């Protein structure tokens, strides 16, 4: 899924260059940071982002957060390695939910204001890296299982992956 490059008209570019040199005082030796190329985020991706729920944490994480909102384990809980892992995963899940909520709000604002969303090309590279890491983790955890003839597995994969 590739984005569409957004080009800047020559008039806008010249005006931006003039404003930039006015801010710099016209000095040639002052290097202004280069603006990144912006690409249109495909509409289906915008729709997907805006359609996601506010909280994606599983029931187990929500129950832990409800019972211990600070997500700080007790000294007794710290002795159990699996409980500590549960706390760590829960904290990560809620941190990622918060990051995504902020990103989702930004996308919503951009879409409402402009009718489209522009992202720099780094967005697509970062997204591809996340997909690659997820695929590697899935293969590492579930790759050795043979599910070719398992209809429940096929339904699960079509539904959730």
TrEMBL record:
Residues 1-31 are annotated as: Disordered. Residues 19-30 have a biased composition (Acidic residues). This is Uncharacterized protein. It comes from Oryza punctata. The lineage of its organism: Eukaryota, Viridiplantae, Streptophyta, Embryophyta, Tracheophyta.
